[in-house]
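Before the break, one more example. Copy the sequence into your notebook; we will annotate it together after we see the structure.
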Amino acid sequence: MVYIPGGSFLMGSPKNEAGRESSESPQHQVTLQPFYMSKYPITQKQYEAMMGNNPSNFKGGSRPVENVSWHNAIEFCRKLSEKTGKIYTLPSESQWEYACRAGTTTPFYFGETITSELVNYDGNYPYVNAPKGKYREETTDVGSFPPNAFGLYDMHGNVWEWCLDVWHDNYNGAPTDGSAWETGENSDRRLFRGGCWYSDSRVCWSANRNYRVTDFLDNGLGFRIVSSVPAVSIFRS
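Here is what the structure looks like once it is written out:
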């Protein structure tokens, strides 16, 4: 788990950001308390240790777990909390974006664009003027690419990551304190963030949002976790 310092940031995308969607509006200030976030997406080894199974399509203990529903991710958090006596949850959407940006205001925490040397995504579809790159067609081991300024890996690409929040079509009325937005819409539609190995570059950026129903499974969809207290790993080999 990585310590994420508290602070404020502007959530969403500016009107002049190429390829932005209306769901990323309006930009709004959010102020968050410090929290801890898992350094990587939850791996297959970690998931299997807690849940007793590995549903992933692309097998590998150090690869992110995928083919997990929102309910599966919530159950992982429940079991981990019960085992450790600490409370673990999925991140709120604002926690996720704040942690992803790590103080940046550009489309990606790497800057104005990305390449296949920085992110596991479909390099056939670069953002703006970046060159085309490699399309690996599968997940990669977590931590294979450079981290952001907070020390978090794979926030862009590799696997999408479930968040706690219910999907809303825009940010009108969204919380500004870092909490999850779990009221006002269909509770069976939950958010995920970050893009994945088969995504084009545009949907890997910091502000992009997407959702599916809570029992949806996909080989590009995993999760990471957060806590308000320091963590003691139970997964060390």
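The domain at 1-230 is CATH 3.90.1580.10 (paralog of FGE (formylglycine-generating enzyme)). Confidence is low (pLDDT under 50) at residues 231-237. Try to locate both features in your own notes.
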